[in-house]
């Protein structure tokens, strides 16, 4: 293995790799702390290896042993976002291929960035506390001392002690329950993950949870207050899974469960193996937002099975997953459905580039992240610029069915490993070795390393978007005298996705006049819509038109849910609306303790508070 470093990790991956991680966790809600032991089965990758460096952040290290012997350990200087390196000196040298078991006893901090501790009052049931983790991108080190880099994959097992009235779940297959012989008020949940995976996919949730079967290998978990609504919303999960298997081959992870988290969860979904985490903002009541589940299912192949080697290559995870998600939509519906989704994605890319600035290096498909926290680089760029490249290649190389052949082969070749963009490109050239002249016409340097809009703008089928574009144009130029011509019937024949597209198009236009926004509310009653994607775009239009009545509605939305896709743009728009700015800052400061730590950190930057 070449001697290289992941800029987001302290660990020297040329010295050791982790083969298995065995965890023993005791969850203490009173102290907001996990007391734990992590036993890492490590393997030497070169002769003479003896210093193991692990990533940690805010962990209290109590003891370390190697093959049962106490060993010396030391913590280095704390880095602003990488945390603190833990160096464990083995009392023996290993030859290449030899293994040892290093066990670390430790405690997490109440401020661990991977963990959000919710009081009973912050849950739907109001009776029991709740804990959930979010380890992507580099937060697992605040929960487990580990080689916290996607270049290292291992299996893992765990025993989790929790109060006996609660349920623990992990990103692994369930492996039974035991009484906790140390405390009769607690019980132990056991888990086993036999497919090697990176540390960022380790996930833990503890709460008052119930489940419903939604398929032969799927259950939906949540607090009982929303479990039946969630079971209805995600009833098509098995159909999506089977469609993905038809495209990509067998699903290797065993169970595919969904967990509906409390509202503060910062993402739409998180592809934790065996247990996808999902935001409650998907509960629209009409299954109109279930494409997020198709996205997370797709990660079972692109991301979880084949993983970006470092976060600079994040597009390999997300661009391919968006591509596969839309191919699932194509199989379940039709090509027009896929094209329509791609149109929306392109607008998300344009907005992300405008937000960062077109010359910002973070808008490159393969950005350099030497001194950048991967969380600060997170945006639609790797998703949608990555998809745009794959779609461009699809058009050049013979269409979706031919390109899917490559995607399936790529996933089979690199299954269970981590790859770079260069690995991917070599695989592409090898698979299409009879079309290298076509591939050589692609401006690879511009696609991978130039910031801003991609060097090629795709042309999508706009037939499903025609009605959205026509209505958008009418509203954007309507004078006061023309406002009465708008009627509730304008949206009658539109799907939820088309209404979202209509509002998204308006967000690309100059801000609407205040009278236009007021008339839109009169005609369409958008304030009453529950669909979070529609509500979010509608409120942004209102704030940009400086409609003061929208301020409390926007402040409510950033408070009752914490999905960053909604929360960050709304806070930015509130900040840019001068009359709303003081209330936005006041609301943030008041609710910051209830927000997920990742969300709170990034919103503080959006509000120029740090």
- Major sheet, described briefly? 8 strands, mixed
Multimeric state of these chains?
single chain
Q: Between the first and last Cα atoms, what is the distance in angstroms?
A: 41 Å
Strand order of the largest sheet: 5-4-8-2-1-11-14-13
Query: What is the helix content?
Result: 25-40%
Radius of gyration: 25 Å
Which key terms come to mind for this protein?
eight-stranded mixed sheet, 19 helices, five-stranded mixed sheet, 36% helix, 610 residues, alpha+beta
Notes on the structure:
It is built from 19 helices and 22 strands. The protein has 610 residues and is α+β, with helices and mostly antiparallel strands. The strands form five sheets. It has an eight-stranded mixed beta sheet with strand order 5-4-8-2-1-11-14-13, with no helix packed on it. A five-stranded mixed beta sheet has the order 16-17-18-20-19, with helices on one face. A hairpin with a 4-residue loop joins strand 19 and strand 20 (275-278). Helix 5 crosses helix 7, helix 13 (496-508) runs parallel beside helix 15 and helix 17 (564-576) packs antiparallel against helix 18 (581-591). The relative contact order is 0.08. The mean pLDDT is 96.
């Amino acid at each position: 293995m070449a001697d290289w470093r992941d800029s987001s990790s302290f660990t020297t991956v040329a010295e050791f790799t982790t083969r298995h991680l065995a965890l023993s966790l005791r969850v203490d809600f009173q102290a907001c702390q996990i007391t734990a032991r992590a036993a890492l089965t490590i393997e030497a990758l070169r002769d003479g290896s003896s210093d193991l460096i692990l990533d940690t952040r805010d962990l209290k290290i109590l003891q370390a042993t190697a093959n049962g012997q106490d060993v010396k350990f030391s913590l280095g200087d704390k880095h602003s976002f990488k945390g603190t390196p833990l160096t464990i000196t083995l009392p023996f040298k290993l030859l290449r291929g030899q293994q040892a078991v290093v066990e670390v006893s430790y405690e997490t901090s109440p401020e661990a960035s991977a963990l959000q501790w919710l009081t009973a009052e912050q849950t739907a049931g109001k009776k029991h506390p709740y804990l959930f983790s979010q380890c992507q991108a580099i937060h697992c080190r605040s929960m487990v001392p580990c080689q916290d880099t996607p270049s290292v994959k291992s299996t893992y097992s765990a025993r989790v002690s929790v109060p006996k009235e609660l349920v623990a779940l992990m990103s692994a297959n369930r492996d039974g329950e035991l009484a906790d012989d140390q405390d009769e008020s607690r019980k132990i949940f056991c888990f086993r993950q036999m497919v090697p995976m990176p540390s960022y996919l380790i996930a833990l949730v503890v709460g008052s949870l119930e489940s419903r079967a939604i398929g032969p290998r799927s259950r939906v978990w949540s607090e009982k207050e929303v479990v039946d609504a969630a079971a209805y919303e995600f009833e098509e999960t098995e159909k999506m899974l089977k469609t993905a298997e038809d495209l990509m081959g067998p699903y290797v992870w065993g169970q595919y469960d969904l967990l509906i988290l409390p509202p503060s969860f910062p993402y739409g979904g998180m592809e934790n193996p065996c247990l996808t985490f999902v935001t409650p903002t998907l509960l629209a009541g009409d299954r109109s937002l279930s494409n997020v589940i198709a996205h997370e299912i797709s990660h079972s192949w692109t991301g979880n099975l084949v993983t970006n080697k470092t976060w600079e290559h994040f597009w390999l995870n997300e661009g391919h997953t968006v591509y596969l998600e839309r191919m699932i939509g194509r199989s379940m519906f039709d090509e027009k459905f896929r094209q329509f989704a791609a149109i929306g994605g392109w607008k998300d890319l344009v907005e992300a580039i405008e937000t960062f600035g077109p010359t910002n290096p973070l808008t490159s498909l393969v950005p350099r992240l030497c001194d950048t926290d991967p969380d600060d680089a997170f945006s639609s760029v790797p998703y949608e610029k990555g998809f745009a490249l794959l779609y461009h290649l699809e058009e050049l190389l013979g269409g979706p069915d031919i390109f899917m052949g490559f995607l399936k082969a790529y996933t089979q070749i690199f299954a269970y490993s981590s790859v770079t963009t260069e690995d991917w490109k070599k695989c592409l050239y090898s698979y299409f070795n009879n079309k290298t002249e076509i591939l050589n016409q692609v401006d690879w340097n511009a696609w991978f390393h130039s910031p801003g809009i991609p060097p090629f703008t795709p042309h999508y089928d706009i037939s499903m978007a025609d009605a959205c574009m026509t209505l958008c144009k009418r509203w954007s130029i309507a004078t006061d005298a023309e406002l009465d011509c708008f009627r509730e019937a304008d949206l009658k024949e539109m799907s939820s996705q088309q209404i979202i597209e209509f509002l998204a198009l308006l967000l690309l236009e100059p801000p609407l006049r205040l009278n236009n926004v007021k008339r839109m509310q009169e005609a369409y009653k958008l304030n009453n819509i529950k669909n979070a994607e529609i509500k979010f775009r509608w409120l942004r239009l209102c704030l940009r038109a400086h409609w003061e009545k929208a301020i409390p509605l926007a402040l409510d939305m950033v408070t009752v849910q914490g999905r960053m896709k909604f929360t960050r743009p709304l806070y930015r728009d509130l900040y840019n609306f001068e009359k709303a700015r003081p209330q936005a800052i006041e609301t943030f400061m008041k609710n910051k303790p209830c927000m997920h730590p990742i969300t709170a950190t990034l919103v503080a930057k959006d509000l120029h508070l740090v």
